[in-house]
Design a protein that fits this description.
The protein has 3 domains: 251 residues, Sandwich (Immunoglobulin-like); 125 residues, Immunoglobulin-like (Sandwich); 240 residues, 3-Layer(aba) Sandwich (Rossmann fold), CATH 3.40.50.410. The chain is 19% helix and 32% strand. The chain is built from 12 helices and 33 strands. It is globular. It starts with 16 loop residues before the first strand and ends in an 18-residue tail after the last helix.
Length: 677
Amino acid sequence: MVRPCGLLNRQEEPVPLKSISVTLSICEFVAGVSATLNYENEEKVPLEAFFVFPMDEDSAVYSFEAMVDGKKIMAELQDKMKAHTNYENAISQGQQAFLLEEDKCSRDVFCCNVGNLRPGSKAALTLKYVQELPLEADGALRYVLPAILNPRYQLSGWPEDSCLKMKTPVVPLEDLPYTLSMVATISSQHGIQRIQCNCPLSPIEYLGDDKTSAQISLADGHKFDRDVELLIYYNEVHTPSVAVEMGKSTTDADCLMGEPSAMVSFYPDIPEAQPPITCGEFVFLMDRSGSMQGPMSKQDKSQLRIEAAKETLILLLKSLPIGCYFNVYGFGSCYEPFFHRSVKYTQRTMDEALRRVKLMRADLGGTEILTPLRNIYSGPSIPGHPLQLFVFTDGEVTDTFSVIKEVQINSLRHRCFSFGIGEGASTSLIKGIARVSGGMSEFITGKERMQSKALRALKRSLQPVVEDVSLNWDLPSGLSAKMLSPEQTAIFRGQRLIIYAQLTGMMPPAEATGEVCLKYTLQGKSFENKVTFCLQPKFDANLTIHRLAAKSFLQTKDMGFRETPAKDKKDVLKVSIDCGVISSHTAFIAVNKDLNKPVQGPLVRRDVPRPILLSATAVMSRYRGGGLDKHQAFGDRPKKKCMSLKICPEMARAHSSTNRTNLETHHTGEMGLSSLL
């Protein structure tokens, strides 16, 4: 039971954040979200409140507003440095000000500052965003409302201005002073088959006899012990479509928002490879940092993250094709490869790998993934065996953009398939490294879908590369399409492909149609998929397609506050500000300039606490018992380093007898799972 408002945290300080309420609208495969943070100052002094919260990295945040004591204040999206200066100036002058920004080190963490909240004052801060919903292997659309922000491992010398570096207090779940509520409306012209949720819901209410719309709400008392995950099953999800959205009036001729935008959804009919691909170098990179010893969720008897990752890895190892090459790396503050270099996949090498996987523990300290990545990339390629990298991690790192950049630099020589393990895994890291390398990402929060997700990833890694991908538009005279999405370099069988374009020129009469054709080559054969669509743009006050198109562009160009190349930063700033979609280089700033008089008195800072999945007692007992030390439990760098940034000393000895074995044995017993593919 959540205690009444005014609860004091461990520092005996009142917590100004009282509740978070979310309104969710899902139409087909696009989600529109409005989240409101409700604050109240119950103290006798003015406050500055600071709150750090998670966000899915695919979210296009396009609106931020404050309602303060009945007065509405709209925020403006500005260059991040300018917004910070304006916020500090407003606070110093006694004005109320509100700041919303992405963290400088990760796209899936947001920071909210509430400045000069007067005694007795109430403020409701509302942010709005849209996002595409991914398609699961069983046809479900997956929406996740992130509720858990795990501690991120702090690299030495990492910037102090990251929200993740600031010492935001944490409290046990039972002491969390604010609540979460969510109401969702789901609609599809194809009809809703069923809706599943990992959290208790109020009874689902279907609207209409044809079940094309439904309304659900989160049951009272959500305790922030897990992300809220919805699985939505429509009667039909594989129908190609094109939606055209009207732009808005603007004086800027080069503004993305001024012209109609199109969102094209393809489901390419890619045939099975004949014969099946049996080559490849498969490298598995396993997170063995202390945080992997944590539970998948707060549910009773929840599996540990390291155990779930090991089960997934064992399944994949048993399913590899004969004749390929493979290796396994464990990483933390140092890294341990099973073999000096990738070895041929035989009964003997597989048995040795399985034996060592079963012995893996979350005992390597912090989460430093860059060095093992660079070691893998520095190795010689195996002719005829393209590199396929599988990464298993809870994503609790601060150098997210640096890792994504490293993967992108090497994207031409490999594909990366990433698995986010447990509640609160970083969507920025997991999705980012898969996106820039042409791979795919999966999130494993429970055992029920782990096997299907692992096998789907492996099956896709065994597909031949689709080549010569092109998109051709057949439009009426005077109308043309300008691509906003990056060029496609990878298409997988069973994958939904979403492409955004800007339509420029004279729009034809309402009855006119256009056609878009996706062409590609596979194993020397040419294929194409066509979609015909109506060219009459539809009005959407939220400009959803335009915002999603802007987000798609920003994900391609925006490599982080410190990592974005100078040549791309100008484009990122322009698209972000023109479209109102936040980036790592922009921030929302709102200033209440209509106060009758400046806020008086010394300003007191209050950091809103975050929940921890383990109580402090449980964590302490775990590391005292030998499973973790205190620093590993909380994701910190251990005082006693284990040769950080170098191979672990116990691996310096070559396992030559195992490394180079090339015994040609047949699949027996457990190796037969490859037939499932």
